[in-house]
Design brief:
The complex is a heterodimer of chains A (295) and B (313). The N terminus of chain A is likely disordered. Chain A is 71% helix and 0% strand. The relative contact order of chain A is 0.13. Chain A has two domains: 50 residues, no CATH class; 209 residues, MetI-like (MetI-like fold, Orthogonal Bundle). Chain A has 295 residues and is mainly alpha-helical. In chain A, helix 4 runs antiparallel to helix 11, helix 8 packs antiparallel against helix 11 and helix 11 crosses helix 15. Chain B contains 13 helices and no strands. Chain B has 313 residues and is mainly α. The longest helix of chain B is centred in the first third of the chain and has 35 residues. In chain B, helix 3 runs parallel beside helix 7 and helix 3 packs across helix 12. Classes of the chains: A mainly alpha (295), B mainly alpha (313). Chains A and B meet through helix 1, helix 2, helix 4, helix 5 and helix 6 of A and helix 1, helix 4, helix 5, helix 7 and helix 8 of B. Chain A: Its main location: membrane. Chain A: Belongs to the binding-protein-dependent transport system permease family.
Chain lengths: 295, 313
């Protein structure tokens, strides 16, 4: 719309409200909005960029200089990270833990969710209560005890021990159950009449219809496992077994003098996840919408 | 049920073992096969450890040996332990500061990025990026920003707000404040998205009516937006409070594992880990402390939900 902006368009009569987005914004309002948006951009993204810039600055360059762009960009700091800690191993461990968590949550969560949504059985209250307990009891409350359980089954200092407690989160089960309940019953009833058993109905009819929720569950389990710190810190002893978060924290302890190297380490830990997020963002937002409101 | 002519669908009759044929039995078993893997995880790694925590809290169990019943000794010790009370106080202050900020600021942010135009999609996405990063990464980034020679102190000094660098990370009170800032910074994007879903349901007509009546944007925010997302504000308050009760990584990372000078910035989870794990771990005592955290969390949630219900009436 190129016509001149009348300062007080809002007092126009009703038909104007059919185009609310044009009528609402005065020029001053727009300027204010975009100023605030830019300010928040600096506040929320600036620290990441500052860290990125620090990680690329060479030894001869002051990291205190206000210039955000390194004058002699170098990857030396990343090399130093790799020489100080087995960072590729940590990336591998984190990938393994996060992928296993995603697969387990998808499989176990969808199976349990399907039973809760579609299969008649007695003892439902007991099952509900058990899953509710996993949501209501914070993991931090039972962490010492889970450590003892892990010790007695020999999983301390193993990646399996990192993955298992979150292998079928209450959130995954609730999301899957809700997704299955949202499917029309008719197709499954018809398949049942044709002699399809519960597994076939789950595997070939229900699962292909909830791909969106499966994606959400996988992504959330992956990101949670990748980012988790406290539990891996508790259960992993041998530095060879560390996941990235524990490894990067370890790096900051051994290298607290050199900000450039720590910055490079944090970038290694965060860039894969930011890439994942920016390529799959609608699933992230959908997950917050469903999980935040129901979880 | 008449037998003759009954069409294929045999209703499952629960609880009559004598007329149970193999098919029915399989029908009753199948759901449990579907549930079994998830149930095993839930029982072995959640329900059982919880019950175990309750039992252990009445014993003197240690990482190596111990385990005799000592009655309520751990709880008596808890009540007299200054370190526990410091941790509880710090945790509650943390909740009290962080929750109001995380209820209000993300709502303002959501209103800011609400217009359905292309550019806003960009802002929503980048505002969300701190949520995706691990708290370890975020904590280390801010450790660098808040260091005595870090960018925050430099900017404040250049603006002549302060004369010398502030000890953001080495003074225990300032350390806790810094951690709160990081918690809020990282949480903004998440709750913004939660609010965006709710804002979509606030009727446009109310806004337009208020606008026609000449209400200022601030007035419309308080009189139209806030009442429209009231339920979501309660939800965000609850979620962020439960999360803040469990605060750990911020404090641990930003103090290099020390919780500040003399551990003065300790939180409950920090203390539970310190007391209960490691070779000298006092598991019985840590279990009692864990249950204190549980009671605090559940008690708060219950009281909160009751207040919400009273408010809704």
């Amino acid at each position: 719309m190129t016509t001149t902006l009348v300062p007080d368009r809002t007092t126009r009569p009703a038909p104007q409200s059919l185009r609310p987005d044009r009528s609402k914004h005065t020029r001053a309002g727009l300027v204010l909005r975009y100023t605030l948006l830019a300010l928040m951009l600096v506040l929320l993204v600036g620290p990441f960029l500052w860290q990125l810039s620090t990680s690329l600055k060479g030894a001869g360059e002051s990291i205190y200089s206000a210039s955000p762009v390194p004058s002699q960009p170098t990857l030396d700091n990343y090399r130093t990270v790799a020489e100080t800690i087995p960072v590729f191993r940590y990336v591998g461990n984190s990938l393994l833990v996060a992928s296993a968590s995603a697969v387990l949550n998808v499989v176990l969560g969808s199976m349990a969710g399907y039973a809760l949504a579609r299969l008649p059985f007695r003892g439902r209250a007991a099952a509900d209560l058990t899953f509710l307990a996993t949501i209501v009891i914070p993991f931090e409350v039972i962490m010492v005890s889970v450590f003892l359980t892990m010790r007695s089954i020999g999983l301390v200092d193993s990646l399996a021990g990192v993955v298992l407690p979150a292998a079928a989160s209450g959130l995954s089960i609730v999301l899957m159950r809700t997704a299955f309940l949202g499917l029309p019953r008719e197709t499954e009833e018809a398949a049942k009449l044709d002699g399809a058993n519960a597994w076939q109905r789950y595997r070939h009819i229900a699962m292909p219809s909830v791909k969106g929720t499966l994606t959400v569950v996988a992504i959330f389990a992956f990101v949670f496992a990748w980012d988790d710190f406290l539990w891996p810190l508790v259960i992993l002893k041998n530095p060879d077994n560390y996941t990235l978060t524990v490894g990067i924290q370890y790096l900051s302890g051994t290298f607290s003098a050199n900000q450039r190297v720590i910055a490079a380490g944090t970038m290694i830990a965060v860039i894969p996840l930011l890439a994942l997020f920016f390529s799959l963002q609608r699933w992230f937002f959908r997950g917050v919408g469903e999980g935040g409101i129901k979880g | 049920m008449t037998v003759a002519g009954a069409v294929g669908r045999t209703p499952v009759r629960p609880g009559r073992p004598k007329d149970e044929d193999p098919v029915t039995r399989r029908l009753r078993l199948t759901p449990w096969l579907f549930l079994a893997p998830a149930l095993i995880v839930a029982v072995v790694f959640h329900v059982w450890p919880f019950l175990n925590t309750v039992v252990l809290s009445f014993t003197d169990a240690r990482a190596l040996g111990g385990g005799t019943f000592v009655g309520g000794d751990n709880y008596v010790r808890l009540a007299q332990d200054p370190s526990f009370w410091l941790a509880t106080r710090n945790t509650l202050v943390y909740v009290a500061v962080v929750v109001p900020l995380l209820v209000l600021l993300p709502l303002l942010l959501a209103v800011l990025v609400q217009p359905q135009i292309r550019a806003m999609g960009f802002f929503r996405s980048v505002y969300y990026s701190p949520v995706v990063a691990s708290m370890v990464v975020v904590g280390l980034i801010w450790t660098w920003m808040l260091a005595s020679d870090g960018v925050v102190n430099q900017v404040l000094e250049a603006m002549r707000v302060i004369d010398g660098p502030l000890p953001f990370l080495t003074d225990s009170t300032l350390l806790l404040v810094s951690c709160m800032l990081v918690t809020v910074w990282k949480g903004l994007g998440y709750y913004m998205v939660v609010y965006l879903a709710a804002l979509g349901n606030v009727s446009k007509e109310y806004h337009e009516a208020a606008q026609v009546d000449g209400a200022s944007p601030a007035r419309r925010f308080w009189s139209v937006t806030v009442p429209g997302v009231r339920a979501t504000m309660f939800l965000v308050g609850l979620l962020s409070a439960i999360a803040a009760m469990k605060v750990f990584a911020e404090v641990y990372v930003m103090s290099y594992g020390s919780a500040g000078p003399g551990g003065q910035a300790r939180t409950l989870v920090y203390t539970i880990r310190e007391v209960g794990l490691g070779l000298g771990g006092e598991i019985g005592y840590a279990s009692a402390m864990s249950l204190a955290l549980f009671v605090l969390t559940i008690g708060f949630s219950a009281g909160y939900l009751r207040a919400q219900r009273a408010e809704a009436r």
